[in-house]
Design a protein that fits this description.
5-stranded mixed beta sheet; 415 residues; ATP binding; binds magnesium ion; aminoacyl-trna synthetase; proline-tRNA ligase activity; BirA Bifunctional Protein, domain 2; Rossmann fold; binds adenosine-5'-triphosphate; 12 helices; ProRS_anticodon_short
């Protein structure tokens, strides 16, 4: 991509009402555009990051047997009334049509997926089964001040699974948990899992995946010696208490952001819709249902928060909008620009995603500042010095380290 043609430009100032680092940096670098609190448009750079995150999530969900679907976002009110959610769930957007029908736009999809599964799951032989989708969700959130980490419109991966027994749900949960941890790791993050019991009044068990960040809206307590982690809201435990799991560490308190969530829904939804299957004994039974969410746009916000520095965004290679930021200095010099053009073509031939800053009349300082702000992992600089040395200067965004490499060595990194 030629930077002179890029749809967006960087800007020096973020809107005054944006208080979080993720929104400030993403807006300044041209990844997103704010429409109103909690509603953002994703511009070319931002869309590319989302696509990368989506493909990591898709890969891990496919691996554990999830089948991708795309359920309707515009939904009838009836199934939501049938489960009681229409009156109980406060974040539901309710839409009146001119034909006096009521609709909602999806805030989640239990009410849609359960009747669909009911059509196809007839016998124990059809279980277990898991379907997922990646797409927009809409919630009438009261406070949306965390940039893209809390949207009224946001992107989520939501998976729903159906099982014969609790044991089978537990088996699948353990597999999904590992897949979730892989997703976060591949995105350059470390997530902790809270395993909170919903208590005896509810059949719901929920597991939250938390990434430590000051911009998070959750308070957690976590053990400094083992993987134990708990949401501070639900627990009687306190900071500096001894860890009851490993008996070695003590609990530390931190702000965290919930980047994923798994619910054991029991048989609530199958019951609400009268969804039974024939079990091995030939009797009608309700399947056990699980719901597995990952906040795709929140994840992007958390990466922006957790991995940025004073200069701007710092994308891990796995989710970066481009892998290489090729910067040509001295663009008036024919030899420099043709060397840069040739390198650009050679990288494209190797299938490398490159943002090529070939802009004329922009100072080296401005180009470097923009490059720091945008946060592409590897910067390759072509200058008069390149011609003199016969080498390219490359700089790693995350570590700030730079080195001089020959054209062959540079290209060899991408073969
Ligand atoms: P929260 O407590 O943060 O409101 P939730 O428990 O309502 O989250 P779920 O309904 O379980 O969230 O949704 C699954 C995932 O979707 C969450 O773990 C989170 O990563 C993401 N998510 C939820 N609400 C939002 C939102 N308003 N904006 C962006 N991401 C969200
Ligand atoms: Mg919520």
């Amino acid at each position: 991509m030629l930077q002179s043609q890029l749809f967006t430009k960087t800007r020096k100032e973020a809107p005054k009402d944006e208080v979080t680092t993720n929104a400030q940096l993403l807006i300044r670098a041209g990844f997103v555009h704010k429409e109103m609190a909690g509603s953002y448009s994703y511009l070319p750079l931002g869309r590319r990051v989302l696509l990368q995150i989506e493909s990591i999530v898709r890969d891990e969900m496919d691996r554990i047997g999830g089948q991708e679907v795309r359920m309707a976002t515009l939904q009838p009110s009836e199934p939501w009334k049938q489960t009681g959610a229409w009156d109980k769930v406060d974040v539901i957007f309710k839409i009146n049509s001119r034909t006096e029908k009521e609709y909602t736009i999806g805030q989640s999809a239990e009410e849609i997926v359960t009747p669909i599964a009911q059509e196809y799951v007839r016998s124990y032989k059809d279980l277990p089964v898991a379907v997922y989708q990646i797409g927009q969700k809409y919630r009438d959130e009261l406070r949306a001040k965390s940039g893209i980490m809390r949207g009224r419109e946001f992107s989520m991966k939501d998976m729903y699974s159906f099982h014969e027994t609790q044991e089978d749900f537990d088996r699948f949960y353990a597999i999904a948990k590992e897949a979730y941890l892989k997703v976060y790791k591949r995105c350059g993050l470390v997530a902790k899992v809270t395993e909170a019991s919903g208590g005896s009044f509810t059949e719901k068990l929920s597991y939250e995946f938390m990434v430590l960040t000051g911009a998070g809206e959750d308070d957690i307590l976590y053990c400094d010696a083992c993987s134990y982690c708990v949401n501070a809201e639900i627990t009687k435990q306190q900071e500096a208490d001894a860890c009851t799991r490993c008996n070695k560490g003590t609990l530390a308190r931190a702000k965290a952001s919930e980047v994923g969530n798994i619910f054991d829904l029991g048989i609530k939804y199958p019951k609400d819709f009268g969804f039974t299957y024939k079990n091995k004994e030939g009797e009608d039974a309700y399947p056990i249902m699980g719901c597995f969410g990952i906040g795709i746009t929140r994840l992007m916000g958390v990466i922006a928060e957790a991995l940025s520095d004073d200069g701007g965004l710092v994308w891990p290679e796995s989710v970066a909008p481009y892998r290489v930021h090729l910067i040509s200095l001295a663009t008036d010099d024919l030899e420099v620009s043709s060397t840069a053009n040739l390198l650009y073509d050679a990288l494209l031939d190797l299938g490398v995603d490159v943002l090529y800053d070939e802009r004329k009349g922009v100072s080296a300082g401005e180009k470097f500042n923009d490059s720091d702000l945008i946060g592409i992992p590897l910067r390759v600089i072509v200058s008069k010095k390149t011609l003199a040395e016969g080498k390219f200067e490359i700089k790693h965004r995350a570590s700030g380290e730079s080195e001089w490499v020959s054209r062959e060595d540079l290209l060899a990194r991408f073969v």
